[in-house]
Write a structure and sequence with these properties.
Layout lengths: L8 E2 L2 E2 L14 E8 L2 E8 L5 E5 L10 H9 L3 E5 L17 H15 L4 E6 L1 H12 L4 E7 L6 H18 L1 H11 L7 H11 L2 H13 L6 H4 L6 E6 L7 H10 L3 E6 L4 H4 L5 H12 L2 H4 L15
């Protein structure tokens, strides 16, 4: 039976306090959906405690892409929640207002509320990185720091724009292609991350995916430079080498824009997915410093787990 002690209200629902159980000495993984600002958001949770890290994925990939380093951080004592960018399918049309870097950043803060947390480090990759910047702009008093991997800023957006156009055509006119792709994906081995990411991509709501792409084309894909310069919280910027879609100059420019930033080179976009420990010492060091700030310590004493009964 799940305990309901330590509950705080979230809209009309409450989040139960659940003790973490471990599986064969490893951090337990929980996944499902949680209601954030009236919409169902897919999440996966690792670890427990008040040192909370919320991670968002790249453009059209699922939260699963962040699981390798989320698990590593949880094993180091952090409470990590990975969230999707694309919302769960719902009755009726998708709402374009749900989809922009700003909207996703707002959901990151909303997820913090749903968890019952006071403060978090927000992080992400590509679009998720931009959303973390938006979260820091939106609510700096609840942002202990940000981890920004391969942001999409002035240089990269020129590369991403035609990809968004092609993706929109695929989701609206290319459904037969996606149907055949799903059939083919069913024959792929299920024991590797790439296959599971393909399955997640092909299983997501086409309506919501199209809305995400259209929302990014019409809305804000990143905070403007003036707002970025106002972000005073500590920032770890991961500049990814050999990435055809994310220009390293954007990460370097962001490091100049943010007054309290560290720039760390990452060999490839796959490093945090396959060789986490090549980067994790820098990330863990950054997180330890961020959560050691006096104004942060008093607000990280207790953060309940989302809990199996709350996930649906």
């Amino acid at each position: 039976m799940l305990s309901t002690e330590g509950v705080r209200p979230v809209s009309a629902q409450q989040v139960p306090h659940v003790s973490l159980t471990q599986n064969h000495g490893k951090v337990r993984r929980r996944e499902g959906y949680v209601l954030v600002d009236g919409v169902r958001l897919g999440i996966t949770e690792f670890g427990s405690g008040g040192r909370l890290v919320i991670l968002a994925p790249s453009l059209l990939l699922s939260r699963r892409m962040q699981e390798p380093w989320a698990r590593e951080l949880a094993e180091r004592g952090f409470h990590v929640v990975c969230m999707n960018n694309v919302l769960a399918a719902k009755n009726g049309p998708a709402d374009l207002d749900d989809y922009s870097a700003e909207a996703i950043g707002r959901r990151m803060v909303g997820l913090l509320d749903a968890i019952g947390g006071e403060i978090a480090v927000f992080g992400g990759t590509s679009l998720g990185a931009n959303a973390a910047l938006e979260a820091a702009v939106l609510d700096p008093n609840r942002t202990a720091g940000i981890i920004v991997e391969a942001p999409i800023l002035d240089k990269s957006v020129v590369i991403i724009a035609p990809i968004l156009t092609l993706a929109y055509e695929l989701f609206t006119l290319g459904r037969p292609v996606l149907w055949f792709a799903r059939r083919f994906a069913g024959m792929l081995p299920s024991n590797n991350l790439v296959t599971r990411l393909i399955w997640d991509f092909l299983s997501a709501s086409r309506v919501e995916q199209a809305a995400l792409v259209q929302g990014l084309m019409l809305g804000r894909i990143a905070p403007p430079r003036k707002l970025r310069r106002s972000i005073a919280v500590p920032a770890l910027i991961l500049s990814v080498n050999r990435d055809p879609f994310h220009v390293a100059a954007d990460a370097e420019q962001l490091a100049e824009d943010l007054p309290d930033s560290q720039l760390h080179q990452v060999s490839s976009a796959w490093t945090l997915r396959s060789r986490v420990r090549a980067v994790s010492p820098a990330i863990v060091s950054f997180l330890n410093e961020a959560f050691a700030a006096p104004w942060v310590i008093s607000r990280t004493i207790f953060t309940p787990n989302i809990g199996d009964s709350h996930l649906n």
